Structure formats: C-alpha cells, structure tokens
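yo, 3-isopropylmalate dehydratase large subunit is done. seq:
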Amino acid sequence: MGAPKTLFDKIWESHVVDTQDDGTCLIYIDRHLVHEVTSPQAFEGLRNAGRKVRHPELTLAVPDHNVPTTDRSEGIKEEDSRIQVNTLDQNAKDTGIHYFPMNDLRQGIVHIVGPEEGFTLPGITMVCGDSHTSTHGAFGTLAFGIGTSEVEHVLATQTLVQKPAKNMLVKVEGDLHPGVTAKDVTLAIIGRIGTAGGTGYVIEYAGSAIRSLSMEGRMTVCNMSIEGGARAGLIAPDEKTFEYIKGRPMAPKGAAFEQAVEYWKTLPSDEGAHYDKIVEIDAADIIPQVTWGTSPEDVVPVNGKVPAPSDAKDPGKQKAIARSLEYMGLTAGTNIEDIRIDRVFIGSCTNGRIEDLRAAAVIAKGRKVADHVSAMVVPGSGLVKEQAEAEGLHEIFLEAGFEWREPGCSMCLAMNPDRLEPGERCASTSNRNFEGRQGRGGRTHLLSPAMAVAAAVTGHLTDVRKLG
Ligand SMILES: CC(C)[C@H](C(=O)O)[C@@H](O)C(=O)O
Ligand code: SF4
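structure:
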C-alpha cells in the first residue's frame, strides 16, 4: 500500500496519459457532454482540419440554453437560437454522437440528462463546455467545465491538457434542521469560503450532513462548486449512488454493473489522505439562506438583514457592497423578509430535478401565488416533467397559479425568451445572481425551491419554516 490518497488523486492518477516537466498532464476523458452554446466552433474546427470525432459513442449532446419553454410545435421563433440549435442538430447527425433533440422526451439541461441516462458514472473523467459540469461530481465523477477550443481537442482526441488541482475538504457534520435543504448547505458554504475560496482546488464534500443528502441534493451541492471558485466538486460514491445508477439506460448492466460497483467501492478517500485546505461546518448552524447581492457569496440567513458597506473592513469589499445595493435597489439594514418580489423561477441544473419539484409542491399545495407575482416552474428535463406529471405535481403548481413549462435552462440565464424586465426582482432557484444574468437590469435572489414557493405565495422573501 502506498501513501493514502484522496478520491480526486485516485481518479486523476488513473487517467494521466503523459506528464510534462512543468507538471502539465495529458489526461484521458471518459465522457463528453455537449450543448449548443459552446460547440459550434469546435465542430467547425474539426471539419476544417478534416478530422472526425474520435469516440462518438462517448459523446452525448442535447440543446438546453436556447430552447423555448413554451409550446414547441412551431419550432424556435428567435433566429439566433434557432440557428444555434439547428447547428447542433446537424453536427450531431454528421458525427454520429448520441443526441436528444429538442422534441425528444429525454431532452433537458445537459447536467440533468447525463445522470438520468447513466452516462455519468463514479471514477470517470467527464467534461463539457459548461462551468456547471461540476454537478456530476455528486457521483464521484471528476467532472469540470472546459472552453470551446478544449471541446474541439476532446472531440478530436478524447484527451485534455490539464494541470492537477489541489485537494480541499469541506466537511459538514450533523443533522440539518427541518426545512434546510442542499441549496441552503451550498449557499452557506459559498458564504463561508467566498467565490474565490476554491480557486485552484477540487472540493470534496464530506461529513454526515452530505452523506444524508439524496443524489439530487448532492448534485445541487456539487453544481455550485464553481460558484465557490473550485475546478470541480466531488462526493464519495456510496450505496445511494449505486442504487441511483442501477438500471439507467447507459449504465453498465448485469455482471458488468456488479464489477463496476466493486471498483467504485475502492474510490472513497483513504483514511489519513492529505488535503491542502480543510473547512468544517456544523450542519446545526445552517438555516435557510438567501442572496441579497450580485455575487453568490452575498449570502445571508433569511432572518438576517441587508448588509451595509461599513460592515466590511476592506475598501474594495465596501465598494462592491455599495454597488450591489444600488444595482439590487436595496437599502442597508432592511430585513431580508421585507424584500418584495415580482417573479419566481423554479428550475435550472441546480434545482430542476424531481426532488426539487416535490419539495416545491409540498409548500405550493393549497396555496396561491400572490397577486403581484408571476411564477413559473421549469422541469430540468423531459423525464423530470413526465415523472412530475405522473405524481400530479403539475396540477398542484397550476392550481396555485404557477406556470408549468417545457424543460431547458429557461430564466437561469437570458439566452431564450424567459427573462426579467429591467428592475424586476426574482426569487430564483438557479445558481448565479450576476448583474443582468436573468435579463438586463433584472435582480436575482438565490434560494431553495421551498423558499422560492414561500416567496411566491407571500409576495416577499419569507422563511419557509413559518409556512409549515
Ligand atoms: C453558456 C454556458 C457556457 C454557461 C456556463 O459555462 O456555465 C452557462 O451554462 C452558465 O450557466 O453561465
Ligand atoms: S441551467 Fe443555468 S447554470 Fe445550468 S447549464 Fe443552464 S444556464 Fe448554465
């Protein structure tokens, strides 16, 4: 037995093809996810060089950012989006990669589709031209976002040039309070480490509170690793992971599955493995979280207040707070629960899975969206939508006054018709609250699905625990 290794070390070392003197490595990539935004130039580059996709069977593409979430029977109205999606249709056809077109039941946000299909597996390397590829780390998959020129490199060679990351451990121990979800955990972590806290690291999430999360919850946590600056997030695979994967269309079957499980069981970090940075959080300290500003680290407990520039010591931070307050149209010292909202968005690769919709429906049931609020629920994939409808969740939402949409990225970012008007304030289950993220001049408050419903029905940010 050699020195104890982390989960990250094990996956990394088993994928290195070549190492240069300066530490730069060539690593093998097991799986490649593709969407319409970051792939057109990559496919064009291949074509111009007269190259083929090296492993079409290891590549899965799906349109998600530019698809409309209303009636799709007449195609895509906006020209830019139509070209983008048509280009992916054509590239998929020409190269023979796996493809779920817009009207396929399996279409959805790429990070929801991968796990659903069993394309995402423990111990593998996975990339996508998308920063939230970190989501897949919930399975013990080394998954990270890459740029378009790297997408081309992976399509052509199934390898990638990368420097190894440092190991960071975020340990959340103890029981979560009722009403506190994976989203609150991840927001609390980012609030603690800051958006640069994970720079240069792969974060491994561990501790009893992380283990207690469902696979959906673990995906929510890993999804936002990138918002904490990390290259990727990882959670050790366990029985829940194996159970989730078993029987999925692209997962190994029968004896191959059993064999895979034996290997997956060897992946968790060894006792005594070295981490370059360790952060410990007590689950009991976490209550529902909301962002007030324009960075995901601008997070406060829902019973808190909007901060003042003078709360920060650093002059740079003071300026940033002042600017955020102005953009968000907020006054320092306001109770978070007194912030009135106009729109609610439930969806995205952070919180658009079945469990998120179930949690939202529990609060929505028998209640009504406030008169001045417009709210929508956007399932993360066609399969999530189908499952939700089989459980009658859509009826609960429609009855309460929510819109029930087709799957896609939707209002997580304004690349399709779903967007905020200037000055509109939105309670959103997505992952980014940057200026203009949900539409020019739009104001975003990030929170959990249950908290989003609480805001929808009361018309202002509200501690969901008060609704019971
Ligand atoms: C469009 C895409 C490249 C982008 C990303 O990389 O994350 C998007 O998904 C986002 O969430 O901002
Ligand atoms: S849902 Fe949002 S965060 Fe996720 S891939 Fe789409 S745009 Fe990016």
